[in-house]
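Marked as duplicate of an earlier ticket. Keeping the data here for the record.
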Amino acid sequence: MSIEIAIKRLDHGAGLPLPAYQSEGAAGLDLCAAVPAGEPVVLKPGERGLIPTGFALALPPTAEAQIRPRSGLALKNGVTVLNTPGTIDSDYRGEIGIILINHGDEPFSVRRGDRIAQMVIAPVSQARFFETEDLDRTERGAGGFGSSGIGQN
């Protein structure tokens, strides 16, 4: 299934690739950093920063964009996306920004054009709640965190 999404390249995103799938079976589109050339953003260990992408979207009301980490950055450098998955709502028209955090031991430089996150387009359903005095019963019931156990016994 595919959907059409309007994308606007911002001035500081000129020359950068638009979001793109890197393989035929990829679920996420890679996003690049639109920081100024020759002026990397350096994230010290424990530091976070908002990294621009240089584009904005007009999602249809039936879709959202989820911003997720890139596994290679997380494994190799300890760099990940905060607020994961971040949600881009269909009525947002501003620049897509990526909140990166460095959980690694060394400073991490984000350079122009670096692939820093991935974006997954997902369908959206909006719920309509109704208030009730009783909920239907289930085997689990009100068992909370950890109530289903971790083993097979």
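See parent ticket for discussion. The chain has a mean pLDDT of 94.
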